[in-house]
Amino acid sequence: xSVQALSLLAWERSxxxxxxxxxxxxxxxxxxxxxxxxAQEFDQEALGWxxxxxxxxxxxxxxxxxxxxxxxxxxxxxxxxxxxxxLKGYRFRGVPLAAWVFRIARNYLIxxxxxxxxxxxxxxxxxxxxxxxxxxxAAERVIARDELRLALTRLTEEQRQVxxxxxxEGMDNTSVARVLGRSQGAVKxxxxxxxxxxxxxxxxxxVE
Length: 208
Description:
208 residues; mainly alpha; Arc Repressor Mutant, subunit A; 9 helices
């Protein structure tokens, strides 16, 4: 995803949503609340929904920051396990479940980073699996995602989180703020600084 595309997304989201979109979001929130209630009762369909929704999102979230397939798979699996273990005590407060899930993922990532500092590891790039598309499309996506991942390593940790959560995972400012434990104003500021930095970083990579 180019910086221009990220900037366009930021502008589109800054002008607000239409009444129809807000109605659709309300319906989605109600559906999510019902699915969470069913998952807390160990309804198999609802638990399957949780897995299908969050595993690929958590995988992408981890891979873009770790650059390692095995570690990304481990994070996605471990975070989903923690979600299931803690789900009974979860209380729905109108904010998408993703904010809670990715708060767990971020804490896991912080713990992993601390362990890696104590015991350095060498990551091997194996590519991103993509079963739904042909090899050429999959390869192009791998290249684009890997370029983005390399650019993100040049940002601060919080700037990187904002870019991934907003533009890759599609979360709103309220949810991102919950994940980071920051105000919405701080999230907007981090987003602005991150986009400015990426404009400087990505052209230099393209020249190389």
